[in-house]
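Hi all, posting the design record for the shared folder.

TITLE: backbone redesign
STEP: 1 of 1
STRUCTURE INPUT:
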């Protein structure tokens, strides 16, 4: 049960168009953030900026987002469909839930991004060897985008857990 009110706002879903690359912002996240309208707008703009200007391949972005949201049933469940549209398979989803970055269904680039996201999410930093390995697959712009996606979606996952965000009904 949500620990803060879910603000009932008219037209919320209509203002939330998604594209092939940009996921739809989950309704209950919007309703929680609507308790602080300025914050809600800032998150909406940040989300749009991420997905509108992404040079990181969608499959790698989806792998990272799933990795950092894996502990939040709400955020993981809401992003799963989008991740599948971007090429993440059921086998990959299961491996992410099991925290198995060695799974053969992942490409070398995905394994590197998955490990990067897990280390980033753990808060221990990314070791130099893993950073170098990830950098062999991504350019500096994509590395910054990867770190930013890990920050934002990892934070959203923690917020959903802390605030008891329920799935949409």
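Okay, here is what came back for every position:
SEQUENCE:
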């Amino acid at each position: 049960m949500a620990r803060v009110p879910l603000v009932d706002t008219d037209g919320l879903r209509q203002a939330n168009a998604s594209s092939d690359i940009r996921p739809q912002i989950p309704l209950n996240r919007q309703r929680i953030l609507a308790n602080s309208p300025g914050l809600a707008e800032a998150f909406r703009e940040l989300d749009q900026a991420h997905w509108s200007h992404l040079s990181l391949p969608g499959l790698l972005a989806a792998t990272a987002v799933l990795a950092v949201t894996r502990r939040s049933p709400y955020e993981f469940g809401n992003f799963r469909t989008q991740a599948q549209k971007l090429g993440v398979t059921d086998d990959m989803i299961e491996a992410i839930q099991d925290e198995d970055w060695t799974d053969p269904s992942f490409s070398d680039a995905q394994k590197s991004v998955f490990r990067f996201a897990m280390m980033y999410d753990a808060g221990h930093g990314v070791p130099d060897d893993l950073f170098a390995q990830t950098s062999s697959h991504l350019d500096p712009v994509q590395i910054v985008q990867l770190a930013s996606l890990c920050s934002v979606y990892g934070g959203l996952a923690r917020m959903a857990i802390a605030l008891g965000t329920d799935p949409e009904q």
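COMMENT: The two ends are 12 Å apart (CA to CA).
Let me know if anyone wants the other runs.
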